[in-house]
Amino acid sequence: MMETNPTIAAIATAPGRGGVGVVRLSGKNLLSLAQKLSGGKTPVPRKVMYTDFVDEQNTVIDNGLLLYFAEPASFTGEDVIELQGHGGPVVLQMLLQRCLQLGARLAEPGEFTKRAFLNNKLDLAQAESVADLIDASSQSAARMAVRSLKGAFSEEIHRLVDDLITLRMLVEATLDFPEEDIDFLQAADASGKLKQLRDRLDKVLQHAQQGALLREGMNVVLVGAPNVGKSSLLNALAGDDIAIVTDIAGTTRDTVREQITLDGVPVHIIDTAGLRETEDVVERIGIERSQQAVQQADVALILIDQREGLNATTAAILAQLPASLHKIEVHNKIDLTGEAASCVSRETGKLRAFTDAGQVIALSARTGEGLDLLRQALLQQVGWQGESEGLFLARTRHIQALEQAKEELLNASMCQENQIELFAEHLRLAQNALNEITGEFSADDLLGVIFSRFCIGK
């Protein structure tokens, strides 16, 4: 438990007007502060008290509910007070200033959750899921954030760490008693245990990758020659007139961004300016931004006018795309050719493929025919397998830690029988990587970065 942290206070509800506003405090010995705020009333822990909130002259600032949670039975593990009054910005600021006058200081972003972590009320993965729940952009993401908050992800990590510790104990026994005839590693089937550990880690990594996709979504960039229908496709996918559409080439002179949701996965669609040589200064700036968007994308939709096929402009665009970028070739304007919508793999040859994209889709952005095929193809490109009971929300840093642990276990599996010390070191490094996820082995600067991204009052 922390011993010297000052009392902190913050408005916990969102900015703006509302029916109810909440001011939250956390610290040591808050009972006397609660009495001063309520005009001498003594709150009972975990009981709602209706009261006036008063200033130093006993003048009423507001009235509402006061909740008092005595340590350690609170979110932060310290004394916590919540003042639930009316949700006007002015009255909430008056309440907050009264709390600061009584000795509290303004909380930093994420400081309440950070104290909960430091007081062992939450591990680091659970603490991060608080922010993820607030930031969830779909119902699926919200459900998975709750699973992480309840400890689903952490439990998987703890199981892996426990098995790693057991395996390390066998290794240490072999190192500590080299003169014994007993081969501890062989007797305990260390290689079999390591394989089971690697298999389970692979499964957790797969779930984490799905959870990270659900949290962070995918960036999809629309590229192609001017006037092939990129803006029309953006509008069709968004279900709204987001971008201006005309028959004039070069209408889109800057990147246009819109977010949609596909099966719970956030999809950030970026309509780019037609990539071409131009003397127009404004359009050239838009093209430069488009090129930056391409570099940051997960999937590129390469639009081709079905009537014209591949032209020199599109060929030049293809040469600029990163080789690692997922690509879907989209043949637009089938409403003008009389063809039916279709989606085929590049190898089938049923549609002529002009690029190295894995899938070729024929559709009409104007009529909407074939859009469902495109939506399915987008999810397939990033490996989305659908929401399942075992999923939890994850972040990029979690993926990196799991991949590092996977690499260390692979290195351990490649050690020779006489390389026991090296085997033990790889196991130790794998355990450290896993412990970083839950915060049992974390640098202070990492904690600072994580909690600084929270909103004030959490």
Write a brief caption for the model.
The chain has 458 residues and is an alpha/beta fold. The protein has helices spanning 31-37, 89-101, 111-118, 124-135, 139-149, 152-176, 184-187, 190-216, 230-238, 281-296, 312-320, 371-381, 396-413, 420-438, 444-452; strands spanning 8-11, 18-27, 48-54, 60-69, 79-87, 105-106, 218-224, 256-262, 265-271, 299-305, 326-332, 342-345, 359-362. The protein folds into 3 domains: 8-121, Probable tRNA modification gtpase trme, domain 1 (Gyrase A, domain 2); 130-213 and 391-452, Four Helix Bundle (Hemerythrin (Met), subunit A); 218-381, P-loop containing nucleotide triphosphate hydrolases (Rossmann fold, 3-Layer(aba) Sandwich).
